[in-house]
Design goal:
Blueprint (H helix, E strand, L loop, with lengths): L5 H21 L5 H28 L2 H22 L6 H22 L7 H32 L1 H9 L4 H26 L7 H8 L4 H33 L16
Helix pairs in contact: 1-2, 3-4, 3-5, 4-5, 4-9, 5-7, 5-9, 6-7, 7-9, 8-9
Length: 258
C-alpha cells in the first residue's frame, strides 16, 4: 500500500478482522477467541519466520535451507497429527506423508531445472508444498478415521466374508482421497477466472510483469496439485492399515476424536 509502512498497513487490515469478530459475536458463533488467537499467532509466527528466512538468505547455505524445510515438515506433521487424533500412529504417518510429498515435488522441480537450488526459491515454494500437503493429510486421516468408525459393522461383515483389510476399506479409502483433493482441484480449475492465486497476485502487486507472474503461478499450481496428490495417497495407504491387526482384523478399540 503506497504511502503507508508495513506495520501501518497491517494495522489497518485488522479492521477486517474486527468485522469477522463482530459477525461471530452477532451470530453467536463463539469464534471470537479463536480469531484473536489466530491473529496473534500469525503475527508472531510470520515475524519470526521473516527474520529466520532473512538470516538463512544471508548465510547462503543450502544446508540451512534444507534444515529449515525439515523443521517445517516436522511442525506440519505434528499439527496434522493433532487434527487426526484417534488415528493410530498419526504423528509418524502425517510426517512421512508431508515429508515425502515435499521431497518428491521439490526434488522434481530441481531435477528438471524449473527452479534454482537457492533459498529464495526453495523456502517459499517449500512452505506452499508443506502447508497444502499438511491440510490434505489432515483431511485424509480425519475422514478415514470417521468413516471407519461409522461403517464398522459394514467393514466387519466384509472381513467375515473373507475380504482383506484393503478390500473391506476400499470404498472408504477412495471417497476420503477424493474428498481431500477436491478443494485444490477446484481451485486449480477456477484459477484466473474466479480468483487470482496468491503468488500471482503478490508478484503483480510487487511490480512484476503479468506474464511472468502467470508463468510462476502455473508452476506453483501444478506443483501443489502434485504434492497434495502424493500426500493424500501416502496418508491413505499408510493410515488404513493402522486400524487393522496383522491378521486383517479390525482393532477392538478405536479411540474417539478429541
Amino acid at each position: 500500500m503506497e504511502g503507508l509502512g508495513t506495520v501501518a498497513s497491517a494495522l489497518l487490515a485488522l479492521g477486517l478482522v474486527a468485522v469477522a469478530v463482530a459477525l461471530s459475536f452477532y451470530e453467536r458463533l463463539d469464534l471470537e477467541k479463536d480469531i484473536g488467537v489466530a491473529v496473534v499467532r500469525s503475527f508472531v509466527q510470520l515475524a519470526a519466520v521473516g527474520y529466520v528466512i532473512e538470516l538463512v538468505f544471508g548465510l547462503e547455505s543450502l544446508g540451512y535451507v534444507l534444515l529449515l524445510l525439515a523443521v517445517m515438515v516436522g511442525f506440519a506433521g505434528w499439527t496434522s497429527a493433532r487434527r487426526a487424533r484417534g488415528v493410530p500412529r498419526a504423528l509418524p504417518l502425517a510426517t512421512v506423508s508431508v515429508g515425502v510429498a515435499a521431497v518428491c515435488t521439490l526434488g522434481l522441480l530441481l531435477l528438471l531445472g524449473v527452479v534454482p537450488p537457492t533459498g529464495r526459491y526453495l523456502i517459499p515454494l517449500g512452505g506452499m508444498v508443506v502447508g497444502n500437503s499438511m491440510n490434505t493429510t489432515s483431511l485424509t486421516l480425519g475422514m478415514i478415521r470417521d468413516d471407519v468408525r461409522a461403517r464398522r459393522p459394514e467393514i466387519e461383515a466384509s472381513l467375515a466374508l473373507g475380504a482383506t483389510s484393503r478390500q473391506a476399506v476400499a470404498p472408504i479409502l477412495k471417497s476420503s482421497l477424493r474428498n481431500a483433493m477436491i478443494p485444490l482441484v477446484d481451485s486449480t480449475k477456477t484459477a484466473g477466472i474466479v480468483f487470482l492465486p496468491g503468488a500471482m497476485a503478490g508478484m503483480i502487486i510487487g511490480g512484476a510483469e503479468p506474464l511472468e507472474a502467470v508463468r510462476l503461478q502455473m508452476v506453483v499450481l501444478y506443483m501443489l496439485l502434485g504434492s497434495v496428490s502424493i500426500a493424500a495417497i501416502i496418508a491413505g495407504l499408510l493410515s488404513y492399515r493402522s486400524f487393522f491387526t496383522g491378521r486383517h482384523q479390525l482393532r477392538a478399540t478405536l479411540t474417539g476424536a478429541e
